[in-house]
Design goal:
Elements (H helix, E strand, L loop, with lengths): L10 E2 L8 E2 L1 H8 L3 H9 L6 E2 L5 E4 H10 L13 E6 L3 H11 L6 E6 L2 H11 L3 E5 L7 H9 L8 E6 L4 H9 L4 E4 L4 H8 L1 H4 L5
Parallel strand pairs: 1-3, 5-6, 5-7, 7-8, 8-9
Antiparallel strand pairs: 2-4, 3-4
Helix pairs in contact: 1-2, 5-6
């Protein structure tokens, strides 16, 4: 599990939030970890938290669930669905359609979104907050490596797991992808099982293999 570094600047809790709120002690009880571990996750910026007007830390249920999925930890039933959100980025419509068909048997585990533009992907990753992205390396507006670099440059996006994909798979391309911040580079046509294994989706959903 990534531990990250640096301090997170905690904002005041947004007014009107409807999410269940958890204290660090609530989370330690729920996950059976020491409260100091939860505090360290927040301090390092890998678990989003807010401050109440009284100065107390609170974590929204949606942020806690996203944290657990992104870091391959079981999601307790109390937090609801452990569906993994994946954003697919590829400028070829037939490829997007093929990937959607391949993931169709896994709709209970994976919520798939897609875009054909690298520029739009950079907007969607902030709006949709996916747990992971599948990014084609060869796109006309911004290539996949640059998309990875720009996402990795955003502190709040560091937990998003990036996977590149290409028809020109080679050791050099794999290394370039990893240097840009991807956890893997897969060959096209995509093997869905490889993606599931990389995201360890059964574990993220709290289901034994």
């Amino acid at each position: 599990m990534s531990t990250g570094s640096g301090q997170q600047k905690e904002e005041l809790l947004p007014s009107g939030t409807t999410d269940q709120l958890y204290t660090t002690h609530d989370i330690s009880r729920l996950l059976q970890v020491d409260p100091s571990t939860v505090s360290k996750w927040i301090d390092r910026g890998i678990l989003m938290a807010f401050r109440t007007p009284g100065g107390h830390r609170r974590v929204r249920s949606t942020d806690l669930r996203s944290f657990l999925i992104a870091h391959q930890m079981p999601v307790p039933d109390e937090l609801g669905s452990g569906t993994v959100k994946l954003l697919v980025v590829d400028d070829e419509r037939p490829v997007l359609d093929a990937i959607k068909r391949a993931f169709k048997p896994y709709t209970a585990q994976v919520e798939l979104q897609s875009t054909s533009s690298g520029v739009e992907a950079l907007l969607l990753v902030s709006e949709q907050k996916p747990h992971g992205m599948l990014i084609d390396l060869n796109m006309p507006d911004i290539d996949g490596l640059e998309v990875c670099r720009r996402i990795r440059a955003r502190k709040q996006m560091e937990s998003v797991r990036l996977i590149t994909m290409t028809s020109n798979h080679s050791p050099d391309v794999v290394e370039q992808s990893k240097q840009a911040g991807a956890i893997a580079c897969l060959a096209k046509p995509l093997d869905v099982q490889q993606v599931l294994e990389l995201f360890r989706i059964p574990l993220a959903l709290g289901v034994k293999k």
